[in-house]
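Quick question: what would this complex look like in 3D?
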Amino acid sequence: MSKNVPYRINLPEEYIPKQWYNIRADMKDKQPPLLNPSTLKPATLYDLTPVFCTELAKQELDDTTRYIDIPEPICEFYKMCRPSPLIRAYCLEKELGTPAKIYYKFEGNNTSGSHKLNSAIPQAYYAKAQGLKSLTTETGAGQWGTALSMACAYYDLPLTVYMVKGSYLQKPFRKNIIETFGAKIVPSPSDTTKVGRAILEKFPNTTGSLGCAISEAVETAVEGDNSRYVLGSVLNQVVLHQSIIGLEAKAALEMYDEYPDIVIGCAGGGSNIGGLIAPFMKDKIDGTKNPYFIAVEPASCPSLTRGKYAYDFCDTGKVTPLAKMYTLGCEFQPASNHAGGLRYHGMSPIISKLYHDGLIDEARGVEQTAIFKSAVQFARCEGILPAPESAHAIWATVEEALKCKETGEEKTILFGLTGTGYFDMTAYSSFLEQTMGDYIPTDEELEEAFKLLPQVE
Amino acid sequence: MSKNVPYRINLPEEYIPKQWYNIRADMKDKQPPLLNPSTLKPATLYDLTPVFCTELAKQELDDTTRYIDIPEPICEFYKMCRPSPLIRAYCLEKELGTPAKIYYKFEGNNTSGSHKLNSAIPQAYYAKAQGLKSLTTETGAGQWGTALSMACAYYDLPLTVYMVKGSYLQKPFRKNIIETFGAKIVPSPSDTTKVGRAILEKFPNTTGSLGCAISEAVETAVEGDNSRYVLGSVLNQVVLHQSIIGLEAKAALEMYDEYPDIVIGCAGGGSNIGGLIAPFMKDKIDGTKNPYFIAVEPASCPSLTRGKYAYDFCDTGKVTPLAKMYTLGCEFQPASNHAGGLRYHGMSPIISKLYHDGLIDEARGVEQTAIFKSAVQFARCEGILPAPESAHAIWATVEEALKCKETGEEKTILFGLTGTGYFDMTAYSSFLEQTMGDYIPTDEELEEAFKLLPQVE
């Protein structure tokens, strides 16, 4: 079979899904609801709409509609960059000498450089359709900020991006590209918000975190004129939009009678892995197939592998609803890690629930030096420079492929190559010059952070 | 017809050409030969092979073989990134309100970020096949250096890249990416070569030029152990390899019964425009079609629009053969211009001859501030951040499309989008902050430079 598989499977544009797939509709045991932090009651549409666009808030709460129509203008935009290619990693297979068949869904071939555009476009579209005057958001590595600035340029919507200061300093050109698309960018924590000022007072030397940047963006949106906050990961709506990754990957594999034995994704907020695995998870829940799912996260920010499954704030400033998720505590300050997109204290509630229920089979935490070793190996043989976030999935893929080499099993492995590393050259450089370190929080540090979890149950 | 044209035409891998097309075979009036600078006799294989790989030197001299087989391993590599998409610029058309149909062949969706990989792979392949121990090259903007470092990593060949110092300083991350692929990079002029030291003595503050970097790379290759020099543009062999761009573009257009009325390319060394127009030029020479060809170059380095058609050295250090081409004189030091890939004193002898004979209809020189205006407009509506070099072609496309708007003509315009601008953010930033200037050499400056042309005829 595989002899006929091309290097790159490029589906024609008719194959762009017309509907997103909502995995929650098929989860037999639903995830616990978001809670209003003042009342500890399930968050309602009324609670969410001051912060979120109304249509997106509806999607956030919807756990029954299996397929949700993608509005026609969004489909039109998707045609500019989708379907994304599903690539057979022939060169990596050869390099590893593995009998495994490795496929990756490559989401980096658009100017945002990642899968983030899949959700940026619908979020900007719904904001425009609602007549909003501006949006705010946060960005870690800068991929989401870039994607949303592209989407807002397309729909002519003003945007302010709070970028995690550590990443902002490591990646000066992210500022320039976001400004090229007409958005405003602020390093976070900043003195432009109450919550930013409070965090700076408590941790004057912090390089920031996603949780902190979220707080600042939410505050700015709520206090703005007909403005709303949008988020690039974690939320149910984002996992919904990202299902387009898995739907396309599945269609492309089916075209060659392939089905993955193992599906691997990197996990920061969880939107990429959530979108990638969604349609395969449906098969697992339905009992028609039994793929093995692996989530890979940085050992420096190990929410799935060492966090608690508990209600917590989605942000450091404690202005968001409470979500039940794997978390390190919303005040956990992750060590400097170049995979800025994975420096988040929590995890998508969907991914958390699936992992808690054993439907995601395994989570692995890995040090960044190991990640970059895989990244450089992959770049040199596959000719694509991966984002450090994506390289987490490459690392686990290499591990699994080498296991197949030992056992002789011809497993089919699918992983998500979420983005490119063009803006991560400082990190590549520190890896090559062997100045890159690893940092793993101690049990004591995590216990301290857990003490600050809100007492909900 | 156009209603059925998708946003992106992705041909399946069977459509990757199996042969390169050699436009010289069809030129009725052949271009004058390369000359050995000591004898002023036509350069022979014997003259070229100390510097170039033997197979590439043969291609350099071949003006009779119309189609040249692409070796199977090169075809295999091409499958990793080709066919490149031909994109219908629906959003740009709408933005401009033009009845013109605009297509662009996008060569930037590979990690090198440009079309340069098309020639890097065959050049590294032939070097490896010949048993060479290392290669040297120059790079301007860094696209060629990146492409060749990828190719050399793939074939496990050591590589030294001389990078024009101005670009090296503007784009520090180019160094990192080239090193990620295992190559060595040296800012040029450097004190590592005799010619570099001589140039530094004469122009201590120079930010370098392609011509100067070429001299250093050639010197290093010739003095190395079983090493050769390779070049990313200008040469006939490179235009030959780049014909794959035009062949694929033509096949994709034919699939939708389209044929371009106008074909536009940016012109620095000439390889991209040469490759793009080659199969369409064949039709023009054969008399079956009459497309209008436009070459666009920076006003700061105006070889076609203000240069002389004369024999000149290909490099500043005067170590290469003499080529008859449009040139500003090999000692011309172009002003700092962010489109580093277009800062070359000369022009492909093929393009020069076609332009001289009126087969390329028009050349336009344009200021960089105008270029960046087009680049930002394009990025915001088409969602692709163009390289400054590529933006020269966008600029002329916009001009032509607006003419169509005035006249109501539904012309079909094809342009080459050679690469992405991820490594050009400093330039974008200086444009957005309005600190970017324009520089156009005076007639007197050019006259001075012309005085130093070698006296051949």
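Answer marked as accepted. The longest helix of chain B spans residues 236-255.
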